[in-house]
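Exercise 3.2. Students should predict the tertiary structure of the chain below and write it as structure tokens, then compare their answer with the key that follows.

Predict this chain's 3D structure.
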Amino acid sequence: MTLRNALFLVLALASSAAHALGNFENPPNGVTVSGASLISGWHCTASRIEIEYDGGPARTLAASGTDRPDTASVCGKRNTGFGLLVNWADLSPGTHTVRAFADGELMDTRTVTVVTYGTVFLDGKTATAIVDQFPNADQSVLLEWRPSLQSFVARQVGPAASIEGTWNGANLERRSNCSAAQNNGARGTYAQWVVALDRVSNTLRIVESGITGLSCTYTGTHRLNGNRHEWVDGQYACTDGKTGTFHSTEIMVASTALSIRLATKLSGTETCDIDAILGGSRF
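Answer key:
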């Protein structure tokens, strides 16, 4: 091979690599999609980006050449973005494939699961919902239905509901592996919970007052895992002599509702494993 031919080959390969340089970013592979959202990504050199669904013969032209400053170091320019607004309800509920083509060449394929509201466009509806402990444990987000997007959007971020205070509800138990077989099975009783959190020692303490007069005290270490409450290294004791250890498997706190799920192990003469839910409400 002559030097001239070798140089030509190198340049051709480099050109081919540059042509293929791009990223089909949204939707990510394997996700659930609904409402209206953007199919998007970027490509360094393509002048035409097309989107195809389920291998069909028709392809939809996406807007391309939009500003993407983050690609300047890779592509040597910023006008590399592409996007196509799609209402996923135009596809039937279930699994679909989405493919992106750059100047007729396949970039990548995504598989998504479409969830719809039973109609192509849900109109005439209004709704709000609160997501507690998001984006952080001490915050909550008020979501509002937006018909134009066919989805909920954040309207307000505020303080989260406090776990502290007095709650009234039920103590539900599902017992197994009890040393006395008759103690296995489901149990439940009405209770009042007084919850206190010591932020210096990170100790969460709950005093339970049952309708039967039984009183139990739960004490353990409170910590945050991301935006989730966790209650670990727990010890509890009741006025009937029952004692045990526990850790939380789920804690949900809203302004008027509390649910704490515990994995409990009884100690002493009875050694049941207990899947328990301490649930309550308040005004």
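Discussion points: The mean pLDDT is 91. The two ends are 85 Å apart (CA to CA).
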